Each structure stands twice: as C-alpha cells, then as structure tokens.
Amino acid sequence: MQRVPSTITLNVSVSDGVFTSTAQVHIRVERANLHAPQFTQGMYEADLQENAPVGSKVIAIRAQDADPGPFGDVRYVLLSDSARDLFSIDGNGQIKTLERLDREERSEMVLSIAAVDAGGRSGYCSVRVTILDENDNAPQFGASEYHASMRSEVEPGTLVTQVQAWDLDQGANGQVSYSLYSEASMQVTELLDIDPDSGWVRLLDREVQSSYHITVRASDQGVPVRLSSLVNITITVLDINDNPPVFERRDYLATLPEDVAVGTEVVQVYAASKDIGTNADIYYNIRSGNQQGHFTININTGDMHLDYYLRPTFLSTPTMAQNLFIHAYSGQK
Ligand SMILES: [Ca+2]
Ligand SMILES: [Ca+2]
Ligand SMILES: [Ca+2]
Ligand SMILES: [Ca+2]
C-alpha cells in the first residue's frame, strides 16, 4: 500500500488572462478511523469462587483494532450498571472483583463490555461469570425447637415426629443428613433413632416415662468442612387410662357413737392410679350397702359423711354394723 504523506502542498494559480495570482495551499491529511475494535470472542465464560477476596482476577479479555495510532488504541468500558460496583476492568482488559460475591444471592452474572477507540468507534462482548459455591451456610431447621406427642401404648418402630432442615448451598455443600446428637445419653439412643435422610424420629423401645428429650444434629456433606446445626425435640407421652385405681387399704373401719350428729365425717377413703394426667384423677361413689341413703361420699375427695340421724333406729340394738362398698374410678366423672 502506498504511504499517504501526512501533508500535501498545492500551488494554486488563478488568471483572468491579464493578471495571474498564485497561492500555496497546505493540506494536512488525517488518517481515517476505518476499523471498529473487535473482541476475540463475542461471549466469554469465567468461573469465580464464592467469597473470593476483593481484587481477585476473573478473566482477561481483548479487543483488537486494525487502525494504526489513536484510532487503533482501545479502552474498555463496563456497560452493566449493576456490575460496576462488583467488577472493574483495566486498560489491558483484566477484570477483577471489587466485592466478595455471594452465590446464594446471585449465582451467575452477565457483564456487557464495550471496547472503544479514540475515534468513538466501538465493539461489544459479554462475559458470563459463574459463581462457584463455597460451603458457607449451615443447615437451618424449620423451627427453633420441636414438640411432639405419642400415645404410651405405641409399638416400637412407630414413627413419632419429623424434623426438617434446609441448606442454601449447592450439591454436597447443601445436602442435609440427620443424626442424634452424639452427646445424647445412652438411654435416649436406645429408645429413639432418626432416619438420616428423612428426619423421621422412630421409637425403638418403650419405657415408663412421661416425656423424652433429644437433640438432633443436621449436617451438610461439605468438603473439606461440614457445617451443622442442633435442635431440641420434646416428645410427650400421652397416657392411656390402663391402670385402675387401687385403694390404699382394702378395708376401712369406722365406729360411730349412737348419738352422732348428722353431717359427721365417717371416714375418708383414698385410691390412686399409676396413670398420669387426667387419667390419674380418681372419683368415688358408694356402690352398695347404702340403700337407705344414710351415707354420702364426696365424689372427688372420698370423704364420707353421715347423712342421717341414727338414734331412733339404733336404740333397740346395742351395736350395729353396716357394710358399704366404695367404688373408685378414674378418667371421666
Ligand atoms: Ca479504529
Ligand atoms: Ca454465600
Ligand atoms: Ca455457598
Ligand atoms: Ca452448607
């Protein structure tokens, strides 16, 4: 290609046939901006580790401009507003981070970048940045503590309750498994266990106790560090009414003088049940022996009173015995 001189000098003369005038015209030749910058790729792909320190290198991109001189000098401009706080790009097309990036907030970003020459011509490309997961979230249980109940007569093997935890991380970093907290007492681990995948708590063996307290751990499968959380579960055993009340004594004996006043307390009977809660509430009535209605019993306390004036009836005999059968029952009044 022939080199174009940077200035051209023209000698110009004009004549009207009589007079001639001559002038010299200097023309400075400027190069034309023939080429727009062009990226080597329209789309670049880059991976960036989550939480990488500020200033980490993401990728270097490059645009070329065939013009010599300033029209061939390229500078890079990050066009995406949202990316400008997070990434920088320097004169060599090197993209670096300005912030630590959180994959759980945004796992992928596409940056639009322009290469601009001194003449204002430009070319464009995109850079897709994929944020790679780091195990930076522990599993979180759905509740701060769990309460469940089971009936006292359930068979071993029964599923009692289920806990669930979520982990925001990706893949193994977010895969949750459940276990009984290893510091749980031996006693608890013999009575209950938990399915590592589903979080279902299962009864292994029954024991006479009104509640169980266990601690469950949810762990992720992160490498190299596994993260975990703990939660407490209280399981209340709902009693069934299967223990009939037993009187503390088989026979109660009361002796009354013949002139006893109406309303006098005769005796107080007492029965108890091995059940718990309302199933241990005992009620009393007189089952038989009280056909004349001489005695009353307090249904709640077992307190028996004389409800009759004895003297007229009993005068004829020196002593008189009366057998009463008291019934104690539990549950509903
Ligand atoms: Ca150019
Ligand atoms: Ca994160
Ligand atoms: Ca993460
Ligand atoms: Ca995790």
Automatic annotation (TrEMBL):
One GO term describing the cellular component: adherens junction
Q: What organism is the protein native to?
A: Sinocyclocheilus rhinocerous
Q: Name one GO molecular function term.
A: beta-catenin binding
Q: Does the keyword Disulfide bond apply?
A: yes
Gene3D superfamilies assigned: Cadherins
List locations, semicolon-separated: Membrane
- Cadherin domain location is 40-141, 142-247, 248-302
Say if the entry is tagged with keyword Transmembrane. yes
GO BP annotations of the record are: adherens junction organization; calcium-dependent cell-cell adhesion via plasma membrane cell adhesion molecules; cell migration; cell morphogenesis; cell-cell adhesion mediated by cadherin; cell-cell junction assembly; homophilic cell adhesion via plasma membrane adhesion molecules
Q: Topology in the membrane? A: Single-pass membrane protein
Q: Which UniProt keywords apply?
A: Calcium, Disulfide bond, EGF-like domain, Membrane, Repeat, Signal, Transmembrane, Transmembrane helix
Top-rank taxon, per record:
Eukaryota
Q: What is this protein called?
A: Cadherin domain-containing protein
